[in-house]
Amino acid sequence: xxxxxxxxxxxxxxxxxxxxxxxxxxxxxxxxxxxxxxxxxxxxxxxxxxxxxxxxxxxxxxxxxxxxxxxxxxxxxxxxxxxxxxxxxxxxxxxxxxxxxxxxxxxxxxxxxxxxxxxxxxxxxxxxxxxxxxxxxxxxxxxxxxxx
Length: 148
Hints:
This protein is α+β, with helices and mostly antiparallel strands. It contains four helices and six strands. The model has no long low-confidence stretch (mean pLDDT about 90).
């Protein structure tokens, strides 16, 4: 099973922000956590995100998409980073989530990533076939990137 751990934090806690903990402590704690995930063989991907001033939002009003540049001051919490884990159970995902070195004011949302089997009773067969083809192509692309 794959799970995504989504770190939500106020923008003011971004690196260098007024509510941010000392950077050295944060980097050391996250480094230890990420090392533990890699050594356990459960980490598939992880990254932090830059402040919302570097981002944008695309909305659709029914006629055409609209792009709005950040920062997103109306949001109380923003996604600050994420991990994708492959674990044997929800309980294992919870154990890893509890170990994540988030501090006060930070929230970690944990969501199971849908598998193809979750869609079998919902999506039409041709959609499932097309999705399987896309996933094979993605795997082939990844294999090609690794050869370079």
